[in-house]
Amino acid sequence: MKPTFIHRLINSSFEDPSLFIRIIRERRAFLFDIGNIYRLKPGDLQKITDVFVTHMHIDHFIGFDTLLRALLRRERPLRIYGPSNITDCIEGKLRGYTWNLVKEYPLKIKVLCIKGDKIITSSFHAENCFERIDNGVSDFNGTILREPLFGVKAIQLDHQVPCLAFCLEEEFHININKAALIERGLPVGPWLSELKKAIREQKSGDTEFIISNRRYKLEELRDIAKITRGQKVSYVTDVSLDDENIKKIVELVHDSDTLYCEAYFLEKDRGRALERFHLTAKAAGKIAREAKVKNLIAMHFSPKYRRQPETPEDEAIREFKGSTS
Ligand SMILES: [Zn+2]
Ligand SMILES: [Zn+2]
């Protein structure tokens, strides 16, 4: 199965957390947290249309300036989603510069702040020297982005401050049945992308396709497309070690193909984890196991474990795989 989302952490697990997800076929990418992102290539920065910020501690937010600078001349707007104080933090960052020479620049930033059961939307446009515009309030029902191909869900957790966790979920996955293509003597071509698009958009069975100068109806081509479960990638970090948080996380990330989860402290430093409002590696492994995720990527480790024989990754994976040793 060709994946729709290609995902990778930008930095090592001892550095700032930031997850880069490319959406294949859309020349577009998402960023989950925006710590130090100087390793991203200019071409990758240009693809970012949506940034999902868990909270604005400096290790999760310092890369905003890098992205802003790279996108100033971009026509495509940038959307940023974050917890209750995201808009003030972005306004504060934008106020930190002088903007008298950007009125010709096209960049528009839309900020969606998730607060309780509301989404509060604001905008900042280069043409207005990034003055804040308040756009209004809508209801938050758990989903913050919905498109024909996928959706992004968010939950609100506690890290002494509000902190979001996210999951990106493909509606369903469409594979082309090559054997059926050959059997029916149909050629490979751009019509296959159009067919997938029509199925995703739930076009009527009468929708026509022209293939090698012959007309076909969508209905006649359905057996070419094999529909399977969509891809699911989840991202959870900086969360207090408490039962309520963990219950909400397990529900959100259930059945993920990949879960990126913080493992800041080892279980032997549980007391420290509680004081600093972080998960332990063991808790990350347990969450992944209970949520039946296929693949756990433990991340965001305290630098103090750099030279220790056992890393938080070892502990998280051991717990995830269910070994009691
Ligand atoms: Zn952090
Ligand atoms: Zn934090």
Q: Can you give keywords for this protein?
A:
11 helices; 6-stranded mixed beta sheet; 33% strand; 325 residues; binds zinc ion; alpha/beta; 8-stranded mixed beta sheet; Metallo-beta-lactamase, Chain A; globular
Within the largest sheet, what's the order of strands? 1-2-3-4-5-6-7-8
Assign the CATH architecture of the largest domain. Answer: 4-Layer Sandwich
Which cofactor or ligand species appear? zinc ion
Q: Counting H and I runs of at least 4 residues, what is the number of helices?
A: 11
Q: Which band does the percent of strand residues land in?
A: 25-35%
The main pleated sheet reads as:
8 strands, mixed
- CATH fold-type name of the largest domain: Metallo-beta-lactamase, Chain A
How would you describe the overall organization of this protein?
- The protein is α/β, with parallel strands linked by helices and 325 residues long.
- The chain folds into three domains: 1-171, Ribonuclease Z/Hydroxyacylglutathione hydrolase-like (Metallo-beta-lactamase, Chain A); 174-229, no CATH class; 239-325, no CATH class.
- Helix content is 26%, strand content 33%.
- It has eleven helices and 18 strands.
- It has helices spanning 42-47, 58-61, 64-71, 86-95, 178-183, 191-200, 218-221, 243-253, 270-276, 281-290, 312-321, and strands at 5-9, 19-23, 28-32, 48-52, 78-82, 108-115, 118-125, 132-139, 143-146, 150-159, 161-170, 172-176, 208-211, 214-217, 225-229, 232-236, 258-262, 295-299.
- It has an eight-stranded mixed sheet with strand order 1-2-3-4-5-6-7-8. Strands 9-10-11-16-17-18 form a six-stranded mixed sheet.
- Helix 10 runs parallel beside helix 11.
- The longest helix has 11 residues, at 243-253.
- It starts with a strand and ends with a helix.
- The model has no long low-confidence stretch (mean pLDDT 94).
- Bound molecules: zinc ion (2 copies).
- One zinc ion binds at residues 55, 57, 159, 238.
- Residues 55, 57, 159, 238 line the site of one zinc ion (ZN).
